[in-house]
Amino acid sequence: MFTVTDTSLSTRFPIYTRANVGEVFPDPVAPATRSLLLFESELGWRDAYIRMGAFETNEFPDDEFCILGVAGGYCYLNASVMRVFGERAPGLSWKAIDEQFFGAQPGIPDYVEQPGDIRPDLTEQLEQTFGWVFSITDVDQLDRLNDHKARTIDLRASRPDFSSMSDLELWEYAEALFPFHRELFQEHIYVTTLTTVPVGVIQTVATAVGRPDLIMPLIAGVGQVDSAEPSYAMWELSRLDPTSDEFASGFEQFRLDFGSRGPNEWEARSPTWDTHPNIALAAIDRMRLAGEEADPRAHQQQRASERAEAAETLLSIVEADSATHGQLAAAIAASGAWLPARERTKTNNIRLIQEVRVPLRELGRRFVERQVFDEIEDFGLVLNEEMEEVFGPTPEGLTERVRERRSTHSQLAEREPEFVFADSPSDPSSWPKRDDVEVEPLAAGDSIQGLPGCPGVSEGVARVVLDSSDPTALGPGDVLVAPSTDPSWTPLFVPAGGVVVDVGAALSHAIIVSRELGIPCVVSATNATRRIRDGARVRVDGNTGVVTVLD
Q: Is residue 511 pLDDT above 90, yes or no?
């Protein structure tokens, strides 16, 4: 163990990666998040795999992490488990899973089959589940998902007056929500995984007939993407006089509806648009600089039209093959339900985490007043098993411990964690500091090859932005160059002419949202934030995944 947040690691499934999970937890995991919510996420992931028939309960350890893990303070995802799923799933493979979830990132070892990986009986169960996927053609057909949406919205609407509650009542309120996170996360992984089924069919058919250019248009413009809704709302607010009563009331409604979003939003210690409204206000201010041509709803409608045209084109190509035509038509219809469903599951989780965060922030505020904590966010540096001490007669005994953890967290945040490891990680002290990582900058005429994220081509001034809470460096038409993105970044997409991201894959959350907003996007452009000079003029080709420095 290198830090207090580090977890056990699996020996049965030994390969761990930052791919995908690095978008969710770009920074080191705080002790509270690790001990309160992360294992609930682990259990929810297992529940999802067991529910769809991919694994059996006895394949996972009882009381230890396996699918997720924390090493050197950073969250990792078990690539071995994901690959076994790919090998068991009909029509998939470990390579397909790597492509969809991890993108074009280097350093992941090839898959080596282990005893027990191939399970024809589980493949048969999965086949039945996959067949059911095609019966869903509208996100509103997923009753469990939409029940979760209603329940999480109600939690916010019925939030009690935390200031009137005792310390213990605040904790008990937050603690009672933890099991619900497991339920919500199960649905998130269940839906996320099943989304790959219709998308996989679209990819296979389009590639087989020599039209891979139709893949991106077919998985864009689907509508009903909950993670895109804040950007639409921000745009409408940006059209109002910021000194008007209409803006004031509209912004209060915005906080009620979308206040759970924010940078690093899975982390309980992080700020949100509700707790730190200045972050959202700054993004709205930047949108005011954009002309009407940047209206995200207009872009979404354009992508929807392009999706319909692409569907018609691809279906006409395979019209003579009735079986392929029928399968493709079903996949296109199903993807229109499952892609927005995936974003809905994430939004549901984020709303719940906010309802855990707010009472804990009230506890943090009180302990700052009592001089036990230095900052409100210090509540996030306390482990679950230390809560008895928090409510005991001498909570000030935690003060120095929390300060040490804050210092450790800051030091780890300066490091570049290894992208992948097998069996055990290297000592974090050996990881390079982010500022010390040297790469050769791109000169005029040079290019980076990434993966297409959203179709379209744009040219503009590159703005390297490392923190979504600071949108001020990005002007209308600029190309956003970011290390990784979650939906809290998407308001920055609206005025941007294009988006380039260091990591990401076809089904990354932010990529789904960028496609809805109609912003040319390239993901998995390795080290783009270091190789592209801030202020350089670049061309972003979202059709081919190529980013070129023009001057």
A: no
